[in-house]
Amino acid sequence: MRKLALGLAVAALFATSTPALAKKGVVFIHGKGGSDLASQSVANAYWGPDMLQATTKGYAVPYLVCHYDGTQYMWVAAGEVTGQITAWMNANAVDEIQVVTHSFGGVVLRWILSNPTYDSRYPALISRIQRANALAPPNRGSEAANLAGTLSGSWLTGWLVSLVGQNNDSTKNCTTASMTYYNQYYLKGSAGRPALPKPYYNVAGTGLWNDFAHSEDYGLATLSGVAGMPGEDDGMVSQYSAQGAGTNWFLTAANHHHNRRNDYRKLGVSLAATY
Amino acid sequence: MKVNVKVKVKTLPLLAALLAGSPLLAAGNRVAVGAFPPGEVLAPLAVASPESDSRTFVKTVVPSDGRAVVELPSTGTGTLLVWVIPSGPDGLAAMKAGTAGDGTVLETKLESPSGRSIGPESDGAAGSGIRRFRIEDFGGEELGLPVGARQEALRVLAPEAGLHRLELSAPDAAAITVAAVELDSPLVLTTWAAPLSRQPGVPVTIHARLADGAAAVAGALLTARLAPESGVAGESVPLFDDGLHGDGAAGDGHYAATVADLPGFPAGPVAIRVEAEGSDDLGRPFARTGSSGLVNERSGARLLPGSVQAAWEGEGEARALLVTASAAVREGGEYRLDVLAGGAAAPDGSRRGLAWAERTDDLTAGPADLSVRIPASLLGDGPLQLDVRLLGLTRVGVAGRVTLDVPR
Asked: How many angstroms separate the CA atoms of A18 and A99, rounded?
């Protein structure tokens, strides 16, 4: 029995040891949006300089802002993200990565963590991730994505279809029906599913009215009401959904626009405190 | 004190993996086996899409000479919030770019059944019964909503029952979508569809429940349309509450319709939109638009149901459960065999999570034999049920699922 206990201790030591001089880095993965998010400058603006500066402790650690076409399915986005992170971590010898995601970016990361055999580059990336901090991830889908489907041109006829526009793939990815499906079969970290291989902490937004002078907030509040989001939400993602995978970290009153920018109820300091 | 450390090498990786809460990887990371943490519960598989509630009515109109009128039914409960979304003449892209959106002049006038109104000349004061909120630079593209750069919301406090008349003027808009929600209304349309994972040839049933608080709403007119991935919706399908269409008892507020097949639908998500209209017990009109969805699976491979078997092998520490299955593969590529092992069933059908295993293989077209081993040490004692799935990776989709009770 003593041998077994000691064996367990040794095994635990092997399992949890990290390089003595691990070089840390921070990776930002944005949410869904337009195809222009494939541009580095647009992706940088998505987060804003305040968030990047605060989370990297004044740019004291290496960081990477991923940039991918925000209209794609999670596995397509994951391919672009993986390529960028792999090149960056190898070029900079970063071997301990903190990942900060916003919205759909948290689902993209879950795809990578959940499906290591999907892409031969995933295992090396996963092995260097120390922790993920997911801001407002739609882990169980978003009623706003459901509404987007209802508003799309698919229900119209003739020329109106293209006029009103159709859902893009990332929006279809994030409906509550789609995320129920993906959680059931492909994604880990939710109830009744295998655990994610790395710690994944979620932050759920519960505020709508952050800045009354800004019409963005009117938009989010309107969206929240029309989409019929249950319980608390940040205008785009409900609390229950954000907390649908991983470990619940904390709640924020910052809404879905503000919770990535560090310009209201600032989150950057909290993110920087985890490494 | 000197301690003699002697641990069998082959047990270390498994022990380390268990202690670290990470899966045991082997065969070049193509096989992974892990234990569920204590207390993890495997819920019964969701065979239907999640229920979706709606208090919202959506309608798109084409202006004539830049003008259109929409009548909005209201039960007069809660707050009425009306979102007006114009689309530009050159399509949404132009609106997003601001070429049409910034130039579009949107004017609205909303009049209640008794004649209370707000016109374009005023936005209404804070706290007034009807108020306008102008929404610009909303970030609709970021949110994935098919909306342009400029919209507005009209809020009606203490709305009256009846038809609200919304006059729209948008000379530069080619279409205007209106979404009106009765916030906090007890009259709710709930929609769902089954199966969530639809294999080729399997019928689809669309469900809707209309309730006004605890009371069922019978006698309403409900229709549904289904839209394939990147396609246009088909014809309307009527939903019934007659007890003959998979809708429970007649007149219980549960409506349903079954679509025998989805000809021409490609693999991928299928969107469903349900329209409901009628009157409540007090004769007040209502309209609701609901949504649901499912995944239309491709026929790239099929897990053969009768082929899934499990057999114990080995002794002592080497004892393991060998799970085998056969598949008919039509489209070659990467596929993953997933196995979830659960314990005894609780009254609600859930099971205690014991272990999981997955194995990825590159399968060629034709018959394929699949297998994965789960160490007996991860499977505990007592009843044991396996949930076995075959998942496409090269092309994402479920190729089959089987459950199997395993004798000890």
From this structure: 17
Residue A202 CB partners (closer than 8 Å, separation 6+): A106, A134, A137, A139, A242, A243, A245, A246, A247, A248, A249
Instruction: Determine contact: B334 vs chain A, CB below 8 A.
Output: yes
Does A87 contact chain B (CB < 8 Å)? no
Asked whether the beta carbons of residue A154 and residue B227 sit closer than 8 angstroms, the reply is: yes
Architecture of domain B9-35+300-405: Sandwich (2.60)
| Residues contacting A255, CB < 8 A, separation 6+ | A205, A207, A208, A209, A210, A217, A220, A234, A235, A264
Q: What is the pTM assigned to this prediction?
A: 0.91
The CATH fold assigned to B187-296 is Immunoglobulin-like (2.60.40)
This complex has an ipTM of 0.91
Beta carbons of A177 and B294 less than 8 Å apart? yes
User: Within an 8 Å CB–CB cutoff, is residue B392 touching chain A?
Assistant: no
- In sequence order, the β-bridge partners of residue B64 are B67
Q: ∠ CA(B375), CA(A114), CA(A244), 5° rounding?
A: 110
Q: Do B9-35+300-405 and B56-183 show the same overall fold?
A: no
Asked if residues B221 and A150 have their Cβ atoms less than 8 Å apart, the reply is no
Pick the closest to residue B72 from B181, B176, B146, B153 (CA basis).
B181
Per domain, the residue ranges of chain B are 9-35+300-405, 56-183, 187-296
d(CA B79, CA B184): 7
Rounded CA Rg of chain B: 28
Query: DSSP strand E in B92-195: where?
Result: 107-111, 117-118, 130-136, 150-156, 162-169, 175-183, 187-194
Given a contact cutoff of 8 angstroms between Cβ atoms, the answer to whether B107 and B169 are in contact is yes
Quote the pLDDT of residue A174.
94
As a whole number of angstroms, the distance between CA A227 and CA A249 comes to 26
Does domain B56-183 bear CATH number 3.40.50.1970?
no
For residue B269, is the peptide bond before it cis, meaning its omega torsion is within 30 degrees of 0?
no
Beta-sheet pairing, B162-169 with B117-118: unpaired
Which tens digit of pLDDT belongs to each residue from B95-116? 343 333 445 578 999 999 999 9
State both tokens at A147: 């509404």
- Specify whether the CB–CB gap between A99 and A112 falls below 8 A: no
* pLDDT band at residue B170 using 50, 70 and 90 as cut-offs: confident
Tell me the domains of chain A and their CATH numbers.
22-138+197-272 (3.40.50.1820)
Q: Phi, psi at residue B139, to the nearest 5°?
A: 85, 30
Cα–Cα distance for residue pair A206/A255, rounded to 1 Å: 7
Q: Residue range A248-253: average pLDDT?
A: 96
- Looking at the complex, report in whole angstroms how far the Cα of residue A146 sits from the nearest Cα belonging to chain B: 7
Give the H/E segment covering residue B397. strand B397-405
A152, A212, A240: best to mutate for the B interface, most B CBs within 10 A: A152
Nearest CA in chain A to B45: A184
